[in-house]
Design goal:
Helices cover 34% and strands 18% of the residues. The protein contains 16 helices and 22 strands. The chain has helices at 2-16, 21-28, 54-63, 65-74, 84-118, 144-148, 174-192, 280-293, 314-319, 380-392, 447-457, 459-465, 480-497, 504-514, 549-552, 579-599; strands at residues 124-128, 166-168, 204-208, 214-221, 227-233, 253-255, 270-274, 299-304, 325-329, 331-335, 342-343, 352-356, 359-362, 368-371, 378-379, 400-405, 409-411, 429-435, 471-479, 524-530, 537-539, 571-573.
Length: 600
Amino acid sequence: MHQRKRNDFSDGLLKSSSVCPDAVSELRNGAKFSLKPSTSPPPPPIALATGRSLVENIVMLSDDPKSHNRAARSSKPASPWRSRKNLSTIIVFIGFCIVFGVMFLLQANTIGEASYHEHLPEFFVGKLSRNSLSVSHNMVPNTRSNQDNGKENPDIPVDVTDNGGSFFPPGGYVDGEKRLKKHLSKLLTRQKAGTDLDVPIRSRWSDVVANGEETMYDTAESTDGSEHFTLYKNILPMEKRKVFDSPLPFEKAKVILKPTIGSHRPDMDAVFVFAEGYDLPIYSLFIESLRVDAKFQGDIVLSVSHLSKLAKGVEHYLRSFKSGVIVYTVDWKCFSKKDGSSIKSANAGLSDCAINGMYGLLDESGKINQVEDPREPRPVATARYELYWAWSLQYHPHQMILLIDARDTYFQAEPFKNLVRSRKSSTGGVLHLFEENFESTNIQKSSFNRNWITQAYGVNTAEKIGKVPVICSGSTIGEQIAIESYLRAMVAQFDKTRCKSKGCDQGFHNALYYKKELEGLSGIDTIYTHKQGWSSVNNLGAMEPTKSVEEWELLNTNKQIINWDKSITPVVHQFDRFKPLANMMNSRKRALVKTIMEKV
């Protein structure tokens, strides 16, 4: 077919002109003639002279010197951009660039995803309504293993409502932002269906509180990614912060209770302890471990029984310190729960008691007259928070204060070691709360904690709080300005609920936190809620029923209690729940008492 076309073409050319016979002859003799269009740019159009035949025009152009220049130019090497081989190379190069670009974008996409999973605390979630956050905080262990297994688990709590919430990552990974929003939307759907209500907070949050201002939440991560505390930041201006009423019963009332032994040093840190009715071994372990082992130089403030009721050797021991040990002897008036009759003791905290000599009223002449306890009798474990509040007034705003139990606590290092403090110029302070072991129990699982909250606030509140870590009321640390505000709130809970069961203070403590009553308080700028075993106070009580000391790996080779990162725990609380630890401390007590009695 192609041969016939070439012949037709050559025959037509011969019929039209007798010019270029050699070229025609070559065609006839089988010279190849390409019908494919040229890849080269077409030559400039040739202007033909009118009135002349095609042959005449061809001859005329061949004699034109300009035509020779054009031919000479056409004989130069072709531009590499016009070469088919080079063009193919260029196309391959462009294709490679496209593939590389796609791979780069996919890598950036992966980085965005990693930014969401691995660096989630770098994201902000803004303008959520007050009820839009899940009530839980750090409630399950790190679940990255689930993510690695391909299970969908955003590992963040939120109840994102249609309130115009927006998400802004500080970095440039927009894809990470989209994934965050996508997972939040999925989580919202599941939470509305009643599932995944207790996922942990792993990001910063903004929450619009009742007056329209914002507060902030945060968490910290260790190098292995596990969360060690939840952080709340109060960013309300001072004029918009809440204030609980003073425990003072009247406007002109004053605290008239004075220490029996020692005096406060306002510029020192302090440890407050309610220590009614104990014997010398308990006082000696508490004070000696704090003074000698922990090398604590601040104030130790204790409430003990009346001097006449103290166990043998206790008064002499407490008076042996030249400074730094401040002792209050409180006159309790206690009543039987059975018939309301007056009894001599608090009955290990089971009886209801009133504080005598706590408050006085300023009369018109300027004289202060003692008044009876304005509150109805309550367990001493609840009333102690009024004592703590009165003591806190003796210290400067940014001195650290530890509230701790005496009977089951000893010290291995300075109690405020490595804890965050605020700047001296701050108008508020830091409050540190300490969880019990979440692997062993939670508020819903613990019948004691659930019942204390139920008695004080009702079944609905207990159910709403649910499966969250128990926060121990027997161990709290804060700067004076924050502790004073917290103690006001604790006293106000009894005034509000009238809960008189021994242990209701634990219910108050947890309800204040989980109901967000501590948020937006004057005096409290920051709240750290520490996981058990990751901070200065190690609460051991909830751990005992599930494993032994050895299984929990609580002791190092020097028989010291250690945190999960193998660091020495500064404050060991509830050690007597483990029999081996109790036996170890009993031996220490006997040795201490022997040394003390030898000095008498």
